[in-house]
Amino acid sequence: MADDLCFFIKDMLIVRPPVKNSLVLRISLLAFVMVCGVFMCSIGLKQISNFTKAGFIDIKVVDKPCEVPNVEKWERPYVHFPKPTTFNRAECACNPVRYFVISSTQRSGSGWFETLLNSHMNVSSNGEIFSVKPRRTNMSTIVDTLDKIYNLDWLTSASKNECTAAVGLKWMLNQGLMQNHEAIVEYFKAKGVSMIFLFRRNLLRRRISILANAYDQNAKPLNGKHKSHVHSHDEAKILASYKPTINTTLLIPELKQADNMVKQALEYFNTTRHIILYYEDIIKNHTVLEDVQRFLRIPQMELKSRQVKIHKGPLREQVENWDDIKKVLNGTLYESFLHEDYKVS
Predict the structure, then answer these.
(1) Half-sphere exposure of 293 (CA within 13 A, CB side)
(2) Which of 50, 270, 319, 334 is 20 to 30 A from 36 (CA-CA)?
(3) What is the pLDDT of residues 220-238, one digit of tens each?
(4) Contacts of 139 (CB under 8 A, 6+ apart)
(5) What percent of the chain has pLDDT over 90?
(6) SS3 of 21, please?
(7) How many CA atoms lie within 13 A of 178 on its CB side?
């Protein structure tokens, strides 16, 4: 039995596959692997070529969005990062910008106030843009104009361009603002625009200023030129020399109309973010300007204007028929306008 097992094992050990068949198999396997390798490499090279043509050429660099500064949640809609089409903000691209509008009535000190704001190195207030009628024809033209201003694409002498921190304009109540108030309120809310209301408490002083300015437009006593605002004390003295005569029959209705317009404006825009200023308060207390800068969230600076005030003296010295005016206003809601409300040296 043992001998039979040995022969069996021996027989198993000496079994050999045919040498010729094994060699052919190995060569065939090697050839198959080489063919597969060449095929796979060609596909890989083709894909890389296609990626190079399609991917690297068409790839676009996406600008990293600017980070909103650390402000309270309610304030975020009022923080903007304009991308003007007329110039590049460069390193100031991510400097936040606030949008504002100065809303006022004629001869309320808005021109003087705007020069104060523009003396700030980071503020651009572009003037009385909607005094030009075609710009306020309808809401479409109004929106187009406002979009250019708030996108920093409305270039004026007031523009600070790249590093502007607050941009706006001066908009009188009778220049389409009241007529289109509903649509404008929606625009201001959607765009995050803050309103600065500037009025005069003493509407009698405003009325005198309106009449004096109308005279200057017609007579042009300053070398044939009309100037609503002056930078020279000599020019101011010449303009102040004119004393209008007020129609006392129309005085109270005119004062009432001006008062109602202010009240209506505050009612129309009471849902917007706003601050209410009075010309007399700014004259008497310049710390009011600090409140304005805090409202606009801009660095505090001393604000200055080159404009010279025209009418400085007591009211009784600025009109021809003072006694008649006193008789009409005494005992009325407007009697307080007769008294001195501020003094300017």
Answers:
(1) 19
(2) 50
(3) 888 888 787 888 989 988 8
(4) 180, 183, 184
(5) 66
(6) helix
(7) 14
**How far is the C-alpha of 39 from the C-alpha of 23, rounded, in Å?**
24
Q: Under 8 Å CB-to-CB from 179, ≥6 apart: which residues?
A: none
Q: Which two tokens stand for residue 171?
A: 């908009």
Contact 193, 99 (CB under 8 A): yes
> Which structural domain range is residue 240 located in?
73-338
- Whether 211 and 94 have beta carbons less than 8 Å apart is answered as no
How far is the C-alpha of 209 from the C-alpha of 215, rounded, in Å?
A: 10
Asked whether the predicted pLDDT for residue 102 surpasses 60, the reply is yes
| pLDDT score of 57 more than 50 | no
Residues whose CB falls within 8 Å of the CB of residue 271, separated by 6 or more in sequence, listed in order: 185, 189
Other residues' Cβ atoms within 10 Å of the Cβ of residue 332: 14
User: What is the DSSP code (8-state) at residue 62?
Assistant: P
CA angle 308/173/182 to nearest 5° reads 150
Query: Does 252 fall in a domain?
Result: yes
How far is CA 50 from each of CA 41, 46, 47, 59, 232, rounded to the nearest angstrom? Answer: 14, 6, 5, 13, 73
Among 204, 208, 314, smallest CA distance to 252 is for: 204
Instruction: Return d(Cα 299, Cα 122) in angstroms, integer.
Output: 8
| Residue type (1 letter), 147 | D
- Are 165 and 97 spatial neighbours (Cβ–Cβ below 8 Å)? yes
Contact present, 337 and 252 (Cβ < 8 Å) = no
Find tokens 């042009």 and name the residue.
220
Q: How many domains does the chain have?
A: 1
What is the CA angle 18-20-23, rounded to 5? 110
Residue type, 130: F
Q: What is residue 192's DSSP assignment?
A: T
34 is a domain residue: no
Examine residue 343 and state whether it is found in any structural domain, yes or no.
Answer: no
Identify whether 3 is part of a domain.
no
Q: Is 325 within 8 Å of 319 (Cβ atoms)?
A: yes
- Using CA atoms, how far apart are residues 184 and 143, in angstroms rounded to an integer? 9
